[in-house]
Design brief:
The complex is a heterodimer of chains A (241) and B (304). Chain A is an alpha/beta fold and 241 residues long. Chain A has a domain at 1-88 and 194-241: Rossmann fold (3-Layer(aba) Sandwich). Chain A is 34% helix and 28% strand. In chain A, the strands form 2 sheets. Chain A has a 6-stranded mixed beta sheet, sandwiched between helices. Chain A has a 4-stranded antiparallel beta sheet with strand order 2-1-4-5, with helices on one face. In chain A, a hairpin with a 2-residue loop joins strand 1 (11-22) and strand 2. The longest helix of chain A has 16 residues, at 174-189. Mean pLDDT of chain A is 93; it is low at 1-9. In chain B, helix 1 (16-49) packs across helix 9 and helix 2 crosses helix 9. Chain B has one domain (18-121, 154-294): ABC transporter involved in vitamin B12 uptake, BtuC. Chain B starts with 15 loop residues before the first helix and ends in a 10-residue tail after the last helix. Chain B has a two-stranded antiparallel sheet. The A-B interface holds A 59-61, 80-82, 84-86, 90-91, 93, 97, 99-102, 106, 109-112, 114, 155, 158 and B 181, 184-185, 187-188, 190-192, 194-204. Bound molecules: adenosine-5'-triphosphate (ATP) and magnesium ion. Adenosine-5'-triphosphate binds next to strand 2 and helix 2 of chain A.
Chain lengths: 241, 304
């Protein structure tokens, strides 16, 4: 743990001039940010700012993109999403992406192992005991909170050390938000690197190292977590809260 | 236009009506075997590719023809064909998917439908040019000649084999899709291909192989049909119309639905031939109309 904290920060994931389109609509207009190994970094911004599109562009899930996305120093802009996943990046999508034609266990075991060193099933059940009780249930029969645990739990098994989490607390009860917060803190302690999209910056402030603010498809500011209080006024303006 | 089966002359321990009943049920099961195999292939393809494969009948016909050609040109018999033809014709499916279908996924469904329909016409036209329209005979494998007397009816061995083999292939396919890891990739990709690919699965390759597999199923049915029906360029076009009705009744994309509906409708058709022969050619379409009225997504389908 202490080791991960003191490890020298090296840029694990970095985008330069990232552009993305859905069909004809030009959504990202040159997004720049970087995430160092072992960090938890958030993307904040209003609805429609382009946070989800940024995660999808990193993951190769948009039809058309340009610019640069580097992971461990290697360029990924031309790679299809399955190759990107194999480099050790895993995504937990905004809509959770639980499969209704798979039961809970099948959902959990679906993502293939991309590297050694993923969590074992026992560790996933220890983090999310609810899942173990419901293995035979249809995936989408779980409650919203349980589906979120499933969506996170299944990518922890893969051995990917870079996690892209899109609003994992959206619409969940406070007690479950806390459970997910503890999970993220623990993953950070174990050396995972996490890029987190959040609307709820109060929640983000409890677990993140730095915050990038997005507006209209661009990163407009970066605020270290330690300076969050000092920048509260600015942040309120950005987010319109 | 349909199944040219007749009950063969047989002894009659029971009265003639009972014998006729079992005879027609057997024919119904045979037809049902082909309905099930073909609609299963269509369901597998539709599930993942979202394309109604109008080439399916032509690919079934190709299966029968390649078996015929392997026998007449290379001296390879039925069992060789049963193993090789699905691979050969399935491979042509892989080529079609790579070169053509894969270019259409981003467009309206209509384009896939037009392409596969056009391909069916071209393939059938080519075979008609080369081999004419009259049927070509294909020898039954010697091992399965003859039959056995069950007491209440005479059961030709080959027909028993067709029923058992297609049931086996259908259940095997269902098992792989519903109960294995590979099947869970397939089901998941049917729901959300982008996410499955983002987990590291090569979904485009999976789509290609799935189309190839669906086509291989059609070709397998074609080989099985060759000794029963005459091998002719038109054989698939006639059958596939009924199979599409079966698919509509069972529900697009449902694996179990296509198998159960295929066999059940074959049986219903057979029964109709006994009790009300005038309707035997239309009963499936009547059922289709009724099902569409009350369950537009089909008996086993879910609204998409
Ligand atoms: N599939 C799509 N097709 C076309 N436009 C899209 C699509 N998805 C998103 N957009 C548009 O792209 C812009 C950015 O959307 P995105 O989902 O990235 O925003 P976001 O910051 O994640 O918002 P939210 O906080 O609501 O999740 C929005 O204007 C949205 O309308
Ligand atoms: Mg979003």
């Amino acid at each position: 743990m202490a080791e991960a904290m003191n490890a020298p920060y090296t840029s694990l994931l970095a985008t330069r001039g990232l552009n993305a389109w859905y069909g004809e609509s030009h959504i990202l207009h040159g997004v720049d940010f970087e995430v160092h190994g072992g960090e938890v970094v958030t993307l904040l911004g209003r609805n429609g700012a382009g946070k989800t599109t940024t995660l999808k562009s990193v993951m190769g899930m948009v039809e058309k993109r340009s610019g640069s996305v580097q992971f461990q120093g290697a360029e990924m802009i031309g790679l299809p999403s399955n190759r990107i996943a194999r480099l050790g990046i895993a995504v937990c999508p905004e809509e959770r992406g639980i499969f209704s034609s798979l039961d809970v266990e099948e959902n959990l075991l679906l993502p293939p192992q991309v590297a050694a060193g993923g969590l074992g099933l026992a560790q996933v059940y220890e983090l999310f005991p609810n899942l173990k009780e419901r293995l035979r249930s249809q995936g989408t029969k779980l409650s919203g909170g349980e589906q979120q645990m499933l969506a996170i739990g299944r990518i922890l098994r893969t051995g990917a050390r870079m996690l892209l989490l899109d609003e994992p607390t959206e619409g969940l009860a406070p007690v479950i938000v806390q459970q997910i917060g503890r999970t993220i803190a623990r993953l950070k302690a174990e050396g995972f690197t996490i890029l987190l999209v959040e609307q709820n910056f109060r929640f983000a402030a409890t677990i993140a190292d730095r915050h990038y603010v997005m507006e209209n498809g661009r990163v407009v500011d970066m605020i270290p977590n330690a300076q969050l209080d000092a920048n509260m006024h600015k942040l309120h303006e950005y987010l319109g809260v | 236009m349909r199944a040219p089966f007749r009950t063969t002359a047989m002894d009659s321990i029971f009265g003639v009506p009972v014998q006729a009943l079992f005879g027609q049920l057997l024919i119904g099961l045979i037809n049902g075997s082909f309905y099930a195999l073909l609609s299963l292939g269509l369901a597998v393809i539709f599930g993942l590719l979202n394309i109604i494969n109008f080439t399916h009948g032509a690919q079934y016909m190709m299966g029968a023809f390649v078996a015929y050609l392997l026998a007449s040109k290379a001296g390879l018999g039925y069992w060789w064909s049963l193993a090789l033809v699905p691979l050969v014709v399935g491979f042509t499916g892989v080529v079609i998917e790579r070169l053509m279908l894969s270019k259409l996924y981003r467009l309206d469904h209509l384009y896939g439908l037009l392409l596969t329909f056009g391909l069916a016409l071209i393939i059938q036209g080519l075979f008609r040019n080369e081999y004419g329209t009259s049927g070509l005979p294909y020898a039954m494998p010697a091992e399965l000649a003859g039959g056995r007397n069950l007491g209440f009816m005479f059961l030709p061995n080959y027909r028993a084999w067709v029923i058992v083999a297609s049931l086996g292939v259908c259940i095997g396919t269902w098992f792989v899709i519903e109960k294995t890891k590979l099947g869970s990739y397939l089901r998941a990709a049917t729901e959300n291909p982008a996410l499955v690919q983002a987990f590291g699965i090569n979904v485009p390759r999976m789509i290609t192989l799935t189309y190839g597999f669906g086509v291989a199923l059609a070709a397998f049915a074609g080989v099985m049909a060759a000794p029963i029906y005459q091998v002719s360029p038109q054989m698939g076009a006639d059958l596939i119309i009924v199979v599409f009705a079966v698919v509509v009744i069972g529900g697009m994309g449902s694996i179990m639905g296509s198998i159960v509906t295929g066999f059940a409708l074959g049986l219903i058709e057979g029964l109709t031939k006994v009790f009300y022969p005038e309707a035997s050619n239309t009963v499936i379409f009547i059922i289709m109309a009724i099902v569409l009225m009350f369950k537009p997504a089909g008996l086993f389908g879910s609204q998409k």
